[in-house]
Amino acid sequence: MAQRPLNLPELGLLVYLLRGAADAERLLGQLPVARVADITAHGVGSLRFVGPMPERRLGAIAGRTHFLDDDGVPVFVALYLDRAGELYELDCWKADASPVHRIPAF
């Protein structure tokens, strides 16, 4: 998977999701240098944080929200940490399973 930095809509969404999370200050501090890999073939939103640890495993949910996509279909969002408490995955999915068109400003 190709790695890249976060784009501005993703960054805004992540800041919004982390605002009330435990250890938010530390996690927010990682965002400007975070590297991610897209995990959806089409559309936007779902990505995995690239970390130095191999064999990372899904841990706790750090935040959740929802919004309406351009076509009016609800988009559900969950931010997951790994078992070590590091940023792991941002998952965005639509109620009708179609690709997400855009992440709005948060």
Walk me through what this model shows.
This is DUF6984 domain-containing protein. Residues 4-104 form the DUF6984 domain. InterPro entries: DUF6984 (IPR054253). It comes from Hymenobacter gummosus. This protein has 106 residues and is an alpha+beta fold. It has one domain (3-94). It has two helices and six strands. A six-stranded antiparallel beta sheet has the order 1-2-3-6-5-4, covered by helices on one side. The longest helix is centred in the N-terminal third of the chain and has 11 residues, at 8-18. 22% of the residues are buried. The mean pLDDT is 92.
Element layout with pairings:
Elements: E1 3-5, H1 8-18, H2 24-30, E2 35-38, E3 47-49, E4 58-68, E5 74-82, E6 87-94
Structure at a glance:
With 106 residues, the protein is an alpha+beta fold. The chain is 17% helix and 36% strand. It has one domain.
* N-C termini distance: 27 Å
Helical stretch tally? 2
Bin the helical content.
Answer: 10-25%
How much beta, percentage-wise? 35-45%
Structural class: alpha+beta
**What's the assembly state of these chains?**
single chain
Number of domains: 1
Q: Low-confidence segments, ≥5 residues, pLDDT <50?
A: none
Strand order, largest beta sheet = 1-2-3-6-5-4
Give Rg in angstroms.
13 Å
- Overall geometry comes to globular
Q: How many DSSP-defined strands?
A: 6
Q: Please provide the ordered H/E string of secondary-structure elements.
A: EHHEEEEE
Main beta sheet: 6 strands, antiparallel
| Overall mean pLDDT | 92
InterPro entries: DUF6984
Domain DUF6984: 4-104
Protein name: DUF6984 domain-containing protein
Organism: Hymenobacter gummosus
